[in-house]
Design a protein that fits this description.
Number of helices: 18
Largest sheet: 10 strands, antiparallel
Radius of gyration: 25 Å
Helix content: 25-40%
Shape: globular
């Protein structure tokens, strides 16, 4: 062994010793969801994932004629949902589709290790080639995890070695190989770290270290570690406006993909700088970008959207941004164990994410406005799909992997759906629960211990930050000190039939923002929809007769109007400009549905809006009229 190899091996051993402790994820075979979420999950698998032609998605690897587009991302995204769902369901059709796609893909790798769709003179240039290599490696590693195929692992390693031959000290800078300060190319860090975890080859870790340095130290790079304390939309004050001529902020999807890689690097090495930067950035996204529906980004860029969400902006809540935000929250939850990331994931899942999914589960909208209606996006890259439709099912994977987690002899229950779930403790003992609930349509949740033999462990139940008054009973006895925004730890010897009954605070609340008001119940945002035929959905609320912040008096859930709606609420609100008669001063009963159901016809017949205008009853400055 030469000196360089000895040094690399020593570095790898040191990094292995520093690997971070994380929550253990459930085996997806042990997560069975029923009710509304279970129905939507099964429709997405059956009508979207199973029906996707995996072989078609691998055809561009044989063409190798591209110099601009991103066709090779589609297969890797498909594999991120197809492989976990094939394992979860045991669906033979899905497994056959996966294997056929891999059989079509592997022979396309060139002798030098390149596996992509770009022609030779354009490879690893300013287009999306390295970005495509990222998704290709991820897809291969998903197949390896599903099947144990050494061929897929070897092909992924050879592709990584090809990239190592192109980029690195004394070679080309990876930051200069892509747009947006090199973030698309640098996001290949995630599969490089995944590959290292499976091969333990030190040169893979060395390449990951190089990419991290490019992200933060290259003068033209995105500086994702050093700038982590700066709000995401303010990190490029001198940048040109985005491709639609609107936002100078950094591209949201690609930035979060890079932080996903940094979290993987932290997991492998224990480098705390990467975790701290990811946490600070995610906190910035929550504080400055995430809207009431859990979505973010305008024209796919950061734009300080939290304070602008009541205004009409173009191309809001791209589904690629939604699923990547959910993945980032899921990874932060897995690493930190902090319930706030489950709170954020839940808000996005029940609103923006499920709202982007077509009612029959067959496709995802590219963008989801807060005012308007939904529709399918355009096809991309001269193929019959697009980035968001390929990306969409990954959000379900993040939700399922975050549903129930374990660390040592502690279990963390993060979400609440009817169904049966189980997870293994560190001892290897598997604990099982059965849940009965209509959550978040209603606040009541029953959790029954179905573990066969008495077992000592701590069950940590997430109490969402929005639930101000939560009551919990264990075997009929009230549990004290239940606080929002954390976990309720119940440590005991659990026996078959032990029952927890929870009542979350689902009070309907108003939220004011700059002369507009929106309404929520629990984690769910509400919206007006034209299908209610209860007036102009753009009509304003009279401010003198309504408090636009806090609980809404008289608000109540009511019978659902249409089959493609999930929740309906009736709110007594003083609507409109007419106050000259007693009749017109009376409140209207205004109906709302959950945001995910709003616009579910995918045409203007179900136009909707989340933020309602408030009467501008404020002192005004005198108007100065200049002489003509």
């Amino acid at each position: 062994m030469n000196i360089k190899a000895i040094i690399l091996a020593g570095m790898a051993a040191a990094c292995c010793a520093a690997e971070a402790e994380m929550n253990a994820l459930p085996d997806l075979k042990d997560i069975r969801l029923d009710g509304y979420v279970g129905t939507r999950l099964r429709s997405c698998i059956e009508n979207h994932v199973v029906k996707t032609d995996g072989v078609y998605l691998t055809d561009p690897y044989r063409w190798r004629t591209e110099k601009v587009y991103w066709q090779t991302e589609f297969w890797g995204k498909y594999m991120h949902s197809a492989a976990p769902f094939a394992h979860m369901t045991g669906d033979a059709r899905l497994r056959a589709n996966i294997e056929a796609s891999v059989a079509n893909l592997l022979p396309s790798q060139l002798p030098d290790g390149y596996l992509g769709n770009y022609r030779e003179d354009a490879r690893c240039g300013r287009g999306w080639d390295v970005w495509g290599c990222k998704y290709t490696m991820l897809g291969l590693l998903f197949h390896y995890d599903l099947s144990g195929s050494k061929a897929s692992l070897d092909v992924a390693a050879r592709l990584c070695d090809y990239l190592r031959g192109v980029f690195g000290p004394g070679k080309r800078d990876i930051v200069k190989s892509g747009q947006y300060k090199g973030m698309p190319s640098c996001s290949v860090l995630e599969p490089v770290v995944w590959l290292y975890k499976r091969t333990k080859r030190p040169e893979h870790l060395e390449f990951a270290k190089y990419i991290v340095s490019q992200m933060d130290e290259h003068p033209d790079g995105p500086h994702l570690i050093r700038d982590a304390g700066i709000p995401v939309a303010a990190r490029t004050p001198d940048a040109k406006k985005g491709y639609e001529g609107q936002n100078p902020g950094l591209k949201a999807y690609e930035m979060m993909s890079c932080y996903q890689g940094l979290l993987g690097y932290y997991e492998a090495t224990g480098d705390s700088r990467c975790l701290e930067a990811a946490v600070k950035t995610a906190e910035s996204i929550v504080a400055t970008e995430v809207n009431v529906c859990g979505g973010s980004a305008c024209v796919e860029h950061w734009y300080s959207g939290r304070v602008r969400q009541n205004r009409p902006y173009m191309r809001l809540q791209e589904t690629c941004v939604l699923t990547t935000w959910m993945r980032l929250c899921a990874k932060l939850l897995e690493i930190t164990g902090e319930s706030r990331w489950a709170d954020e994931l839940e808000k996005t899942f029940y609103n923006a994410y499920l709202g982007a999914l077509h009612p029959d589960g067959s496709k995802f909208a590219t963008y989801s406005p807060l005012c308007g209606f939904r529709s399918f996006g355009q096809y991309h890259c001269k193929m019959h799909t697009n980035c968001c439709n390929a990306n969409g099912p990954r959000g379900f994977v993040s939700f399922l992997e975050s549903y129930l987690q374990a660390r040592g002899d502690e279990v963390f229950m993060n979400f609440f759906c009817s169904g049966k779930t189980a997870i293994a403790l560190r001892s290897g003992e598997k604990v099982t629960f059965e849940t009965f609930t209509l959550y978040p349509e209603r606040g009541g949740v029953e959790i029954w211990n179905r573990t066969e033999k008495p077992t000592d462990f701590t069950l940590n139940i997430r109490i969402p930050a929005w639930s101000e008054k939560t009551t919990v009973k264990l075997n009929g006895k009230p549990v004290a000190d239940v606080k929002p925004g954390g976990y309720l730890a119940l440590k005991r010897e659990w026996k078959m039939g032990d029952a927890i009954v929870i009542d979350f605070d689902m009070t309907c609340r108003a939220h004011e923002l700059d002369d507009y008001v929106a309404f929520t119940t629990g984690p769910v945002a509400l919206a007006r929809d034209m299908r209610f035929h209860d007036g102009d959905i753009g009509e304003f609320v009279r401010i003198k007769e309504f408090k636009p912040e806090g609980p809404v008096p008289g608000a109540m859930p009511v019978r659902v109007l249409a089959e493609d709606m999930w929740m309906n609420w009736a709110l007594p609100l003083p609507m409109g400009a007419h106050r000259e008669s007693m009749e017109k001063r009376l409140p209207d009963i205004v109906r709302f549905c959950d945001y995910a159901s709003a616009g579910s016809t995918w045409d203007s017949s179900s136009s909707y809006r989340v933020w309602l205008p408030l009467e501008c009853f404020k002192p005004t400055q005198p108007v100065v009229v200049k002489e003509l």
